Amino acid sequence: MKFIPTWLHRLASPQHFFGDIKSWIMWLYVLGTIGFLVGSVWGLAFVPPERYQGDSFRILYVHAPIAHVAQLIYISIAVAGVVHLVWKLKMADVYMSAAAPVGCWLTALALASGMIWGMPTWGTAWVWDARIVSTLILLFLFFGLIVLRRVVPNPTRAATALSILAIVGAINIPIIKYSVEWFETLHQPASIELFGDIAIAPVFLTPLFINIASIYVLAAGFILANMRYLVVERNASMTWIQGWIRGQSQ
């Protein structure tokens, strides 16, 4: 696999990953937290009320970023599942196990913040429309990945089962995205398209983009921290882990 950059190939080794990634985690936490605080205060307190939804739209600055990143995390888990099935990389399995809890929490927060948004906007906290139901399914998929990893005793079989579930479950992601176009739903169509027009006024965009970037950074920090913990747990008998443990105790 000569096309893989040297630094990425190095991170595919549990020993090198464990040593190289430590300094990244704290910086990700700090930068992500500062960015999220800036974007949230800006969006919740300083942008003007939206024309139709008034102040209730401000939950957008929390709801939209976490919902977006939760879906992206699931896609990345499915990609890691393919990598594991094809190349049998141990770190792909570690990534799936570490990312699933982060994605699960973000999806739960997306549903909760959507309920807060729904009360003043739709007059109800929950409706069984396609976007909400498909997001609920995403929560169940994340939870299923977590449980499956714990209940299958054989690590190799657990990793294979995780990979298959992640890949099959990825069909739910386009359903979430296009549910507002394919089905009758209370949700509005996407206001930001990667290769299309942006239907949000510029005054609202900057804090939204700050929060999206910040959630990316924070999620990366949490996932890397989880991965580092799993590397220690799964390689506890290795000499380099034993040496690190002795160094920590001195």
Tell me what you see in this structure.
It is globular, with a radius of gyration of 20 Å. The N and C termini lie far apart (40 Å). It has a domain of 158 residues. Helix 3 packs antiparallel against helix 9, helix 4 crosses helix 7 and helix 6 runs antiparallel to helix 8. By secondary structure, the chain is mainly alpha-helical. The model has no long low-confidence stretch (mean pLDDT 89). The longest helix is centred in the middle third of the chain and has 33 residues. Helices cover 76% and strands 0% of the residues. The relative contact order is 0.17.
What's the arrangement of secondary structure elements?
Layout: H1 6-11, H2 14-20, H3 22-46, H4 60-87, H5 90-122, H6 130-151, H7 155-169, H8 172-182, H9 202-234, H10 239-249
Main beta sheet, described?
none
Q: Unreliable segments (pLDDT under 50, ≥5 consecutive)?
A: none
> What percentage of residues falls in helices of 4 or more residues?
over 70%
Mean pLDDT: 89
Terminal Cα separation, in Å?
40 Å
Give the ordered list of helices and strands.
Answer: HHHHHHHHHH
For the secondary structure, the number of strands is 0
The tally of helices reads 10
Radius of gyration of CA atoms, rounded to a whole number: 20 Å
Give the CA-based shape: globular
Structural class: mainly alpha
Summarize the structure.
With 250 residues, the chain is mainly alpha-helical.
What are the key terms here?
250 residues, mainly alpha, 0% strand
